[in-house]
Amino acid sequence: MTNVSFVDQRPRNKTRAVQVGRITIGGGAPIAVQSMAATKTQDIEATVRQVQLIAAAGADLVRIAVDSRKDVDALAEVRARTRDLGIPLSVDLQENYRLAEFVAPHVDKIRYNPGHLYHHEREKSVREKVAFIADIAVQNDIALRVGVNCGSVDPVMAAKFEDDDVGAMVASALEHCAILDDLGFSRYIVSMKDSDWRKVVDGNRRFAEQRPDVPLHLGVTEAGMPPDGIIKTRIAFEQLIAQGIGDTIRVSLTVPFDDKGMEIAAGREIISDIAAGRFRSVPPNFGEGLNIISCPSCSRVENMKFIELAQELKQVTAYAQEHKITIAVMGCRVNGPGETDDADLGLWCGPAAVNLKRGEEELGAFPYETVLDRLKVELGTLIAAGR
Q1: Is the bond leading into 226 cis (omega within 30 degrees of zero)?
Q2: What's the CATH number of domain 291-384, 3.30.413.10, 3.30.1120.10, 3.90.180.10, 3.90.550.10?
Q3: How far apart are CA 303 and CA 354, in angstroms?
Q4: Strand duo 32-36 + 23-25: pairing
Q5: How many whole angstroms separate alpha carbon 175 and alpha carbon 153?
Q6: What gap in Å lies between CA 268 and CA 31, rounded to an integer?
Q7: In the chain, at which residue ranges do the beta strands (DSSP E only) sit?
């Protein structure tokens, strides 16, 4: 079947076709546009409404996160209540790959992170764990996504490549492709993401040169708030899609619950513009000054004040726009600690407090209402030091 997507006419890499529910990814099919539910999966009412909202915006695929058996039970109910929409569901396995056998009957695709897989059940080989997931996928007639994030590559691969984190990300993806190929499983897609659009472009180009047959999911993770988040994503997509690289996309934005459909609208507009040869100019000095990175929120977010915090941060740091400083705002403890390490200042949000960091140094946990006061002090110190 073909996707309900804008059909672009630009040359595409001849990747193999991967069936995901009623849509096809790769194999020349239209580029699929997807998003992820920004709700706690166990909040069934909110998650159902989010799936409905994203589907109504024209998505080809919706992803939901699962990290416990209670999440699995909720997922089953969400699937039952959204089945009539006809939209394929993907699931993010998060930390526990063994949940694959319980979620598989309710979804069309499973995404796992090789970095997270490495840390779980360390006594088992990576191949054993991948084989378990692949076997579950075969039994349930579903697809897989190997989702590598630059900020969470497994430590062995990271140590091997030292400062070349893009190389580590690509090598991790290639390693898992080789394992799946050796297992005789070919119904998979790969993604390689980072909050830096340059690394996204570099990584996907490197991978496509070595594995032009594998469908690619494109995205700039933690792109941030509009309009900057859309601009970062557009720059990456214009360079990659124009070269024939990319079979499905997600625009990851930090937006309120009811605005989640903006990710789909932005993705469709970018694809449409590229297909028509409309390449947008980049604002003067874009990316040269203050860079705010923020995740798009998902079921891992432990306090929805995170979104308000990110929006307020943008306002209270406006005076520092010309300074080359990176501030990262992460919504959970899973990605927060690691993916703020490379930022000059980082905030990762817990249930009742926000953890503030300067580089890799922990500065303490602060209430949501006061953390930005302390952040401004640290920001002032960086500016005074000539940043």
Answers
A1: no
A2: 3.30.413.10
A3: 10
A4: unpaired
A5: 12
A6: 9
A7: 18-20, 23-25, 32-36, 61-65, 89-92, 109-112, 143-149, 188-193, 216-218, 248-249, 291-294, 326-330, 345-349, 353-358, 361-367
Nearest alpha-carbon partner for 220 in 233, 234, 205:
233
CA distance 292 to 375: 13
- Would you state the structure tokens that stand for residue 214, as one six-digit string? 């594998």
Rounded to the nearest angstrom, the gap between the alpha carbon of residue 221 and the centroid of all alpha carbons in its chain is 5
Q: What is the pLDDT of residues 133-181, one digit of tens each?
A: 999 999 999 999 999 998 889 999 999 999 899 999 999 999 999 999 9
| Record: fold of 18-275 | TIM Barrel (3.20.20)
Q: Which amino acid is at 58?
A: G
- Delimit the domains of the chain by residue range: 18-275, 291-384
Environment class of residue 330 by beta-carbon count within 10 Å: exposed (0-12), middle (13-18) or buried (19+)? buried
Backbone angles phi, psi at 149, to 5 degrees: -110, 135
pTM: 0.87
DSSP code of 346? E
**Contact predicate 235/197, CB 8 Å:** yes
Cβ atoms 329, 347 nearer than 8 A = yes
The continuous run of DSSP H or E covering 15 comes out as none
Tell me the C-alpha distance between 145 and 326, whole Å: 30
Query: 195-242, pLDDT tens digit by residue?
Result: 999 999 999 999 999 999 999 999 999 888 999 999 999 999 999 999
Q: What is the DSSP string of 67-80?
A: -SHHHHHHHHHHHH
CA 279 to chain centre: 24
* Spatial separation of the C-alpha atoms in residues 387 and 381, rounded to whole Å: 9
CA 60, CA 5: separation in Å to the nearest integer?
7
Residues 145 and 22: beta-carbon distance below 8 Å = no
What does the block give as tokens for 106? 């309710």
Distance of CA 169 to the CA centre of its chain: 14
CA atoms within 13 A on the CB side of 261: 11
Widest pairwise Cα distance in the chain:
60
Distance CA 351, CA 329 (A): 14
Q: Which residues pair with 193 in a beta bridge?
A: 149
DSSP state of 223: B
